[in-house]
Every structure is written in C-alpha cells, then in structure tokens.
C-alpha cells in the first residue's frame, strides 16, 4: 500500500504543477482581454486546450490510483484517502486550492468575454440599423431576402 500512496502523492504533485501552469495561462488571458490583444488570446486558447488535455489525463491517473487503493474515483474518494493517509493531505489541499483559484480566474475571464461579446453585438446592431439592414435570418432560421435600403452615411 505504501507504493500506491507514494504514486498518488507523485500524481497529486504533477497535477498540481499542471494546474498552476494552467492558472498562469488564465492570468495571461485576463491581461490579453484587458489589453484587447487578439494575438495573445489566440495563443492562450491554444495553450488552454493543450493543458485541458494534460489535466484530464492527470485526473484519470489520479482516479486510477484511487481505485487501485480501494477508494472511489471522485473528491469523496480523495478525501477518504487523505483521511487514511496523512501524507496525502498537503498535496490534496494544494491541488484543491489551485483548482478553486483556476475556476475563479476562468469565471472572471468568462465574464469579460461575455461583456465584450455583448458590446460587439450592440455595435453590430447599431451599424445594421444605421445601414438599413434588418435581421439576416427570420425566426425559423431562414435567410431573409436582402432588400436592404441603401443610405448614404457620412461619418
């Protein structure tokens, strides 16, 4: 059982490092969103996707180890393993703390993105109205005929 506990400790440490790196990417994403840096956003999205795959694999490894030790492959199982093996406590707590931090960062970034999208949609709606272009699709999703009135708009 000691070998399994050591493997789980190592797994938690590796997962913690991945989550910390993921959080660094989320922080960079927040800076890019604040600065309106589209290139940096593209980079952060690619990195987030890469780390999401790595994190999923690390989570699967942790869950396999928990199962091998006779615990459920979920938070309750990890909590039970920590209760039975005090050496897992620090790694588990650090991982959960960093995961919570990542969730908060991701939520904040999502709010910024939603705000930008709403602003962009309002801008597009205003431009369509000024150009005399109505909705491109009707309520059933069929394209409307393009009988837009042309106006001379002077800036």
Describe the structure in your own words.
This protein is an all-alpha fold and 155 residues long. Helices cover 76% and strands 0% of the residues. It is built from four helices and no strands. Helix 1 runs antiparallel to helix 2 and helix 1 packs parallel to helix 4. The longest helix is centred in the last third of the chain and has 43 residues. The chain is elongated, with a radius of gyration of 24 Å.
SSE topology:
Layout: H1 2-35, H2 38-68, H3 75-84, H4 89-131
Name the features.
elongated; 155 residues; mainly alpha; 4 helices
Work out the helix count. 4
Ends distance: 75 Å
Structural class: mainly alpha
Unreliable parts: none
- Mean pLDDT rating: 87
C-alpha-based Rg, rounded: 24 Å
Which band does the percent of strand residues land in? under 5%
């Amino acid at each position: 059982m000691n070998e399994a506990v050591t493997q789980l400790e190592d797994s938690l440490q590796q997962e913690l490092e991945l989550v910390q790196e993921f959080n660094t990417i989320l922080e960079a994403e927040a800076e890019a969103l604040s600065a309106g840096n589209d290139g940096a956003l593209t980079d952060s999205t690619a990195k987030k996707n890469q780390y999401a795959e790595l994190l999923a694999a690390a989570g699967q490894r942790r869950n396999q180890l928990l199962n091998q030790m006779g615990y459920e492959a979920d938070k309750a199982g990890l909590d039970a393993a920590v209760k039975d093996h005090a050496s897992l406590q620090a790694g588990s707590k650090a991982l959960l703390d960093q995961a919570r931090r990542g969730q908060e960062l991701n939520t904040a970034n999502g709010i910024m993105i939603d705000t930008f999208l709403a602003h962009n949609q309002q801008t597009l709606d205003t431009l369509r109205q000024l150009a005399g272009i109505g909705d491109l699709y009707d309520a059933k999703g069929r394209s409307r005929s393009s009988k837009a009135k042309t106006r001379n708009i002077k800036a």
